[in-house]
Write a structure and sequence with these properties.
Layout (H helix, E strand, L loop, with lengths): L6 E5 L2 E3 L4 E3 L5 E5 L7 E2 L11 E5 L6 E6 L7 E6 L3 E6 L13 E4 L7 E4 L3 E5 L2 E5 L6 E6 L7 E5 L2 E5 L17 E6 L6 E6 L4 E5 L12 E3 L8 E2 L7 E5 L5 E5 L5 E3 L26 H8 L1
Antiparallel strand pairs: 1-4, 2-3, 4-5, 6-7, 7-8, 8-9, 10-11, 11-12, 12-13, 14-15, 15-16, 17-18, 18-19, 19-20, 21-22, 22-23, 23-24
């Protein structure tokens, strides 16, 4: 006899403003369907009344077990599992597994062992029996994970550094330095020949990249570290790019001398404004530093 497929679905509310992150609301929750999505039943028994972001994963090893990672402002914030797809029970409220809940968080059930699960946010963690273990990986901000359904020791991780592969359950991972992967917020070019490309990389430094070389293709030897950080606008005299100016979040600005390799901070007001209220800041910054000097350099 035909047995309908069970679906689990979650809804959330989120808005990120320059001065505030709003996450959660009365509309957030988890539903399931047993008729291919024709009808849905809310299954929030045992969950916080007010929830934010939610990640859900059904165990292949035991489809009656579902795992959820839930953002909430009480002790139920954390990793929760669902037995028989009806009643939720708290497994751990270790705040490490919700470290980046305002940004993203995912949960992945092991396909072979029903009691093994992985949670991704800033680190990659392995909650087990109320304890949380950090899995050592090559880069922070872990976003996506593939587990081999026939060999749970084989996983592929996607993070802000690129892609990593393990064949021993996360004890060791392949290198991130053998792949041309980067995420750029913005780029700039000079007027040299061959020209160079400048830009800030997500969760990494800014970089300077040659547009060509005399070989068969660009390699890591054609890259060098630029000023500023991941959010950098990189500005310079396009005809004579010796001094490079780069920004960073929280108002940071630095200058790099490409002749001698020296760099220094030139931020107009030295302060660590993380967690300060805007009214207590002398200058208000969020992701981008002031671009006035960058505009001047570009127009020069």
């Amino acid at each position: 006899m035909y047995k309908p497929i069970h679906f689990v679905c979650c809804y959330g509310e989120h808005r990120r403003l320059p001065w505030q992150v709003r996450s959660g609301g009365n509309g957030c929750g988890i539903w399931k369907s047993e008729d291919g999505g024709e009808t849905w039943k809310k299954i929030n028994d045992g969950l916080p009344k007010l929830m934010g972001k939610i990640g859900v994963s059904v165990s292949r090893a035991n489809p009656e077990r579902v795992y959820a990672i839930i953002e909430a402002e009480n002790l139920l914030q954390g990793f929760i599992d669902l037995i028989m797809v009806e009643n939720w029970t708290l497994q751990t409220n270790n705040q490490l597994i919700t470290a980046r809940s305002w940004y993203y968080m995912e949960v992945f059930a092991d396909p072979v062992q029903a009691d093994v699960v992985y949670v991704l946010n800033a680190p990659m963690t392995n909650p087990d029996g109320g304890k949380t273990f950090t899995v050592r990986v090559g880069h922070g901000d872990t976003h996506d994970l593939w587990l081999n359904p026939e060999n749970n020791q084989n996983m592929i991780l996607g993070d802000d550094g690129g892609g990593e592969i393990t064949y021993n359950g996360g004890k060791t991972w392949s290198s991130l330095n053998n792949q041309p992967t980067a995420q750029f917020y913005r780029v700039n070019v000079d007027q040299q020949f061959p020209y160079k490309v400048y830009g800030g990389q997500q969760d990494n430094t800014s970089v300077i990249i040659s547009s060509r070389n005399n070989g068969i293709g660009l390699t890591d030897k054609d890259w060098s570290v630029g000023p500023g950080c991941e959010s950098a606008f990189v500005a310079f005299d396009p005809k004579n790019p010796i001094l490079l100016y780069g920004g960073c979040y929280q108002g940071g600005i630095s200058v790099l001398n490409t002749v001698d390799g020296h760099s220094k901070e030139i931020t107009q007001y030295p302060a660590n404004i993380l967690a300060l209220q805007p009214k207590n800041m002398k200058y208000r910054y969020n992701w981008n530093a002031s671009v006035d000097c960058f505009a001047f350099m570009t127009q020069k």
